[in-house]
Amino acid sequence: MRCRPKTNRACVYSFNSKKNIECGKGTSLQSCTPPKSYESRARRFFKAVFHNVKTVMDTFDNAPRRTRRACKRTGSQDATTKRDSTSVLRSLSVGNVNANDVMGEDLEHLKNGKLEGRVMSPRYSLLREVGRGSYGVVYEAVARRSGTRVAIKKLRCDAPENVELALAEFWALTSLEKRHENVVQLEECVLQRNGMAQKMSHGNKHSKQYLRLVETSLKGERVLDYPEEPCYLWFVMEFCEGGDLNQFILSRRPDPHTNSSFMRQLSSAVAFLHQNSIVHRDLKPDNILISERSGTPVLKVADFGLSKVCAGLGTGKGSAASRERGAGAGRKEGTSAYVNKNNVNVNKCWLSSACGSDFFMAPEVWEGHYTAKADIFALGIIIWAMIERITFIDAESKRELLGTYVRQGTEIMPVGEALLENPKMVLSIPQRRRSHMSDGVRQLLRDMLAVNPQDRPDALELHSRVGQVTCAA
């Protein structure tokens, strides 16, 4: 259901071609070959080095070779893949690394015998597979020392698209300085290759593998060495045993109290993200998880693979102008109350990648020119569908999913796409004749789903209004 950016990478990144790189005076890269005398020495040297690497890995890793099969969108998994995933996690020594890179090409640690001191016992044990998507697998696992259950997402970085999604999620979650009850918590992220692991840290300039992942994402082409040795990113996150919002809502009878609680939690999460310069861009019930550890359902906004961190995209001049325009105008998008600590107003940061899930995409996202107000539109679709239990059958998975749409004859069309074709269309809120939706909620949904993004409330105003309408109800 995800729409990738409509960009021709081959055209955009054609300036990265190696044909014009020079190796010497008037010599092209293709003609730079070493003399034969050095070639034999190099072959003997690397043969000895690789023998040492293999010996060390056999001693401390002792893991079978990993499968090269890519992730498929399917609910089943064969025995080979299960054994492979378990062995990879066992070889993942999460506590073994610091800022230094301990991947295969860093031979100084092998020569000096420092690798032994780095390898520690595995910290997690896989229990079962709980989800599988187009670019990753999610497992339920347990921390061996504390016994805490966690969710571990395994992402294979074998394609620029996968690397881009993985890094977007990593950058978004690591940019948060504080925790929020309704945003999934990232415990740690580990980069694994050749049976060795390295704990990821944002902006780690000393890690060659991290820099290569960034370069892969920017260039849109694989720059990692040895393609036969796959590279993985492992995200260790809090485990949500209640499933996603689809499963939770559709497996229970309607409950106005639960709906009001979920509305407050969702608006609080989006306000927190926008205050921290993060635009989610893929809000939908599938990406909202439920934790029931406290005895009451707690929502967790997850899956930041399409998110955008807007820090640094705003300008001081624009922010000052926004403050002047917003003076005395209440909590509109231009007020100083919404300019965060980074002096960035996410409602003034324009994005152009048409991405997301079509039933939750705002009209301006279909056009490829939008701001954080697109998240407000998606949230309006979710809340509307949740209150009235409006569902559709996903053509890909054949699952019944929460989501609002517009009927055109026998076909259904996403609300955002329908509003783009007919901006004067009036949405029927509520859809059902016998609805207990209050007037306050009805007006709030109409404002959230306004065609013009400037007519929608920003995230802070939305959270305040949600509190008012739910308390009144």
From TrEMBL:
<keyword id="KW-0547">Nucleotide-binding</keyword>
<dbReference type="InterPro" id="IPR017441">
    <property type="entry name" value="Protein_kinase_ATP_BS"/>
</dbReference>
<dbReference type="GO" id="GO:0004674">
    <property type="term" value="F:protein serine/threonine kinase activity"/>
</dbReference>
<keyword id="KW-0808">Transferase</keyword>
<dbReference type="GO" id="GO:0005524">
    <property type="term" value="F:ATP binding"/>
</dbReference>
<feature type="binding site">
    <location>
        <position position="154"/>
    </location>
    <ligand>
        <name>ATP</name>
    </ligand>
</feature>
<dbReference type="Pfam" id="PF00069">
    <property type="entry name" value="Pkinase"/>
</dbReference>
<feature type="domain" description="Protein kinase">
    <location>
        <begin position="124"/>
        <end position="466"/>
    </location>
</feature>
<dbReference type="InterPro" id="IPR000719">
    <property type="entry name" value="Prot_kinase_dom"/>
</dbReference>
<comment type="similarity">
    <text>Belongs to the protein kinase superfamily. Ser/Thr protein kinase family. GCN2 subfamily.</text>
</comment>
<keyword id="KW-0067">ATP-binding</keyword>
<keyword id="KW-0723">Serine/threonine-protein kinase</keyword>
<dbReference type="InterPro" id="IPR008271">
    <property type="entry name" value="Ser/Thr_kinase_AS"/>
</dbReference>
<dbReference type="GO" id="GO:0110031">
    <property type="term" value="P:negative regulation of G2/MI transition of meiotic cell cycle"/>
</dbReference>
<keyword id="KW-0418">Kinase</keyword>
<keyword id="KW-0539">Nucleus</keyword>
<dbReference type="GO" id="GO:0005737">
    <property type="term" value="C:cytoplasm"/>
</dbReference>
<dbReference type="InterPro" id="IPR011009">
    <property type="entry name" value="Kinase-like_dom_sf"/>
</dbReference>
<protein>
    <recommendedName>
        <fullName>non-specific serine/threonine protein kinase</fullName>
        <ecNumber>2.7.11.1</ecNumber>
    </recommendedName>
</protein>
<dbReference type="InterPro" id="IPR050339">
    <property type="entry name" value="CC_SR_Kinase"/>
</dbReference>
<dbReference type="GO" id="GO:0005654">
    <property type="term" value="C:nucleoplasm"/>
</dbReference>
